[in-house]
Design brief:
The chain has 238 residues and is α/β, with parallel strands linked by helices. The chain has helices spanning 37-44, 64-68, 71-80, 100-108, 148-161, 180-191, 209-219, 227-237; strands spanning 19-20, 30-31, 85-91, 113-117, 132-133, 136-137, 139-141, 171-176, 197-200, 222-223. The chain folds into 2 domains: 1-54, no CATH class; 64-237, Rossmann fold, CATH 3.40.50.2030. Helix content is 34%, strand content 15%. A 6-stranded parallel beta sheet has the order 7-4-3-8-9-10. It has a two-stranded parallel sheet with strand order 1-2.
């Protein structure tokens, strides 16, 4: 565990959980100086699976440098009409009902749409087959919540390539929030002037009716609704 996303572990798990960096928990071994010898030993001590199950490969690692390495293909696909819309679908996930909305939105993305995803919300749909457009995967996994910077830099690079603002791009932001990092990401997006963000499955507690009125007026911030209807609105606005 390397960040604040740790809760008190069960006693039965304490010999298989390690912390590193700024996070720690009483009774949980802490890794110093990037020495993962204890982690490797604990892993090798596990019995493993009795038999192999069905396997599935999930491709990750599409941070900004990787995406910018094929920027010419992406820009070319947009100019040719092969890519008509980008969707940022991601953020923090949780167990509360209603979060299947983000799976449904991803499934509603048309074949000429590309999904940029990050954070644990991606696990709602990143095992599905989305295919590719001219060799560019339609699902680009940028990393975790802390990699939101990559999504911003990609959006800025696309805006520069088309000589427009980020809000002028055929780009829709559908953000799943849960805790303080997601709130920080939202405030960053608002500070950068991003509009038309859909936030859910519920609005954060700090978004009071008065705050929502201001955010809606200035940034057109909105909650999520029905996945099909929201998708039609996003496509119509592009």
């Amino acid at each position: 565990m390397t960040s604040n996303c740790i809760i008190e572990p069960e006693d039965s798990s304490r010999n298989r959980i390690f912390t590193h960096g700024p996070v720690g928990w009483p009774g949980v071994p802490h890794i110093e100086d990037a020495d993962y010898t204890a982690v490797i030993a604990a892993t090798n001590a596990q019995p493993g699976f009795v038999e192999d199950g069905p396997t599935k490969e999930i491709t990750t690692g599409f941070a900004r440098n990787t995406v910018m390495g094929v920027a010419d293909k992406v820009v070319g696909a947009v100019k040719s009409g092969d890519i008509n819309h980008f969707f940022v679908i991601g953020g923090c996930d949780g167990a509360k009902p209603g979060r299947n909305y983000f799976t449904e939105v991803a499934e509603e993305v048309p074949d000429d749409g590309v999904i940029l995803t990050l954070g644990c919300a991606k696990y709602r749909f990143n095992d599905q087959e989305f295919g590719d457009i001219g060799g560019v995967p339609r699902l680009l996994d940028l990393g975790q919540c802390n990699d939101s910077y990559s999504a911003i830099q990609i959006a800025v690079a696309l805006a520069d390539a088309f000589d427009c603002g980020v809000n002028d791009l055929p780009l829709s932001l559908v953000i799943s929030w849960l805790e303080q990092k997601a709130v920080a990401v939202l405030l960053t997006l608002l500070h950068l002037g991003n509009r038309d963000i859909r936030l859910g499955p519920d609005l954060p507690a700090f978004v009071s009716p008065a705050a929502l009125e201001i955010l809606s007026e200035k940034f057109n911030l909105m909650g999520v609704g029905d996945a099909k209807e929201d998708m039609q609105q996003m496509l119509k606005a592009s």
